[in-house]
Amino acid sequence: MTCREYLPLINDLADGNINLEVEKKTKSHLNECRDCNGELNQTKKLKRLLKNFRTPQPDRKYYSKATSQILGRIAGITKTGHSIN
Amino acid sequence: MNAQIPELVIGFVEGSDADFAQLVRMFRRKVYSLGYRLLGNHLDADEVVQETFVRIHRKRGDLKDVKYFSTFVMRVATNYAIDLIRRRKGNTSMEEGVISLPGEVQLDLARKVATPSEEYEYKQIMSEIRMALDKLPPKQRLTAILHDVEGYTKPEVAAIMECPEATVRSNLHIARTKLKKLLKHRL
């Protein structure tokens, strides 16, 4: 197997989502290949970075208002029988 | 809280608006976060929230066959968000850093940081991640967000996106390869 073919398996390994036999084979390749080892480390770092990706949250007023709008639209649809796109 | 969901879904399917309203309250934050992560701005995230729940209400008849309501909600939300990305032709209007919008919606940081320099650095990293994600095609972006940001498993992502698990695996591999290049200086 080539390094290119190992790359998807390195992803699976980083996710801890790999069967034992393939894990053994991949780890054996990683012991010999510096580039693929670097890929595994980079994938793990990327996963950590993305896990911390936060988005701003609006305050509580927003959610109450949005919920009222949704329920209002639905009440309008139910009343008139028209669907809103 | 989760134990209530099946009962609320049954009530909703049978016509209870109160149960539907409760389901909206339980899932609105999750839908908003997904919408914001995918589209990068408040107005589009709000549109995803509104349309998702209006569509779910319209599809209430389909819910009899739905095993997991949360997966169904995320599926409706992601389908709408992908449509929106395509309508915008990939040009989502990412907000720079964390901004305060005029009017009633005031955004604030989800994570508190200790000093102004740390806050600046934090905003910078978040902004770079958003810009890197924005460069991915919609399905790769969605796969990376659902799996690596939101923490869904591959089978769950496959259920939300209605595609084979192998497609999720492949999209994730391609997305990560691109993101590693785009965020190289952060890794």
Form type of chain A: elongated
Poorly predicted residue ranges of chain B: 96-111
**Biggest interface and which pair forms it?**
A-B, 35 and 51 residues
For the largest beta-sheet of chain B, the strand count, sense and barrel status come to: none
Determine Rg of chain B (CA atoms, Å): 18 Å
Number of helices of chain B: 8
End-to-end separation of chain B in angstroms reads 38 Å
Number of helical segments of chain A? Answer: 4
How would you classify the helix and strand content of chain B by structural class? mainly alpha
Could you state the oligomeric state of the chains shown? heterodimer
CA-to-CA gap between the ends of chain A? 52 Å
Provide a descriptive summary of the structure in words.
The complex is a heterodimer of chains A (85) and B (187). Chain A is mainly alpha-helical and 85 residues long. Chain A is 76% helix and 2% strand. Chain A has four helices and one strand. In chain A, helix 1 packs across helix 2 (20-32), helix 1 (3-15) packs parallel to helix 3 and helix 2 (20-32) crosses helix 3 (34-51). Chain A is elongated, with a radius of gyration of 24 Å. The N and C termini of chain A lie far apart (52 Å). Chain B has 187 residues and is mainly alpha-helical. Helices cover 67% and strands 1% of the residues of chain B. Chain B has helices at residues 5-13, 17-39, 42-58, 69-87, 116-134, 138-149, 154-161, 165-182; one strand spanning 107-108. In chain B, helix 2 crosses helix 4 (69-87) and helix 6 crosses helix 8. The longest helix of chain B has 23 residues, at 17-39. The N and C termini of chain B lie far apart (38 Å). The chains are: A mainly alpha (85), B mainly alpha (187). At the A-B interface, helix 1, helix 3, strand 1 and helix 4 of A face helix 2, helix 3, strand 1, helix 5 and helix 6 of B. Strand 1 (57-58) of chain A pairs antiparallel with strand 1 of chain B, so a sheet runs across the interface.
